Amino acid sequence: MDKPISKIGVFTSGGDAPGMNAAIRAVVRAASYYQKDVYGIMRGYEGMIDNEIVKLGARSVGNILQRGGTILKTARSEAFRTPEGRAKAFANLQKTGIDGLIAIGGDGTFAGLTKFYSEYQLPSICLPGTIDNDLAGTDYTIGYDTATNTVVEAIDKIRDTALSHNRLFFIEVMGRHSGYIAINSGIAGGAVSIIIPEEDTTMEQLFNQLDEGEKTNRKSSLVVVAEGSKLGGAMELAKRFSERNNYFDIKVTILGHLQRGGSPTYFDRVLASKMGIAAVEGLLKGETGVMVGVRNHAIVYNSFESIMGKRHDIDPELIRISKILSI
Length: 327
Ligand code: F6P
Fold this sequence. Notes:
The chain is an alpha/beta fold. It folds into 2 domains: 7-143 and 264-307, Rossmann fold (3-Layer(aba) Sandwich); 147-260, 3-Layer(aba) Sandwich (Rossmann fold). The chain has helices at 20-33, 45-49, 83-96, 107-120, 144-165, 180-189, 203-215, 234-242, 266-285, 304-307, 316-325, and strands at 7-12, 37-41, 53-56, 100-105, 124-128, 167-173, 193-195, 221-226, 249-254, 290-295, 298-303. The chain has a 7-stranded mixed β-sheet with strand order 3-2-1-4-5-10-11, with helices on both faces. Strands 7-8-6-9 form a 4-stranded parallel β-sheet, sandwiched between helices. α1 (20-33) runs parallel beside α9 (266-285) and α5 (144-165) crosses α6 (180-189). 6-O-phosphono-beta-D-fructofuranose is lined by residues 15, 106, 130-132, 174-176, 227, 260.
């Protein structure tokens, strides 16, 4: 590294996730601890382009650890996809004197930063912040644990009413390309069937599984489906099944964005705190072009090249046990 980093810029980008505030707090406090200046860049890459950059200090991140959302706001930026947008962003960072960047977000955020880093070589580190848990290079992403607990709580409530009325519910959870929330909330919530984008479940297999319930006198059933399922979402599955079923009374619940809000669990707060500190310490030690991850409880730094375009595969064991339990 040519010269030591003195001014760190931190931002959140893409879909928000519970625990992002805890990560911001950890970054700001670690930077202050090491006597570096730290700036918050508002609305992700949008604020970088519009020069919405604010000075932060240890006290400006008080009382945010337990709050969902992100105090720095977030956005999905189209302008940053253009060379002109990125040039403007770089010029603004230079004006403020920011010489190290910490991004908190998901794969879209990383793709933007990888491009930016290849063009301007500004020392940069990413933190995985997404409820989807779909990023290679880390066992957990910030926000995933909270979102999954939110879903389990909702499933438990739906189960109460499903049982009372002898109903079949199709419950749709988030995950455009990832079945992590679905598979683990489905197991924890006792779903009879879990439909995820990573698996090629056929309509016939789903029908058979549900028919089995009728044969064995199952009174109510819950199917958890990830929004990115290849068979379609909860509405589509309910429609298709209702065309051939006269046993279950069918209902649909789409949990939607409530999965993205709420106070982070202890797990996400601690994960975000560890990762935020690791990002600052990594940057100060010369790590750059990397994403912080946690593998087997230890902090790791993954080069952008080693994770870009890769996904966090679902453990086949989870799929296997979900099928045994739904008998
Ligand atoms: O990536 C996180 C996520 O919540 C996905 O699970 C979901 O498909 C998507 O974001 C929704 O994005 P938006 O809030 O922009 O509609």
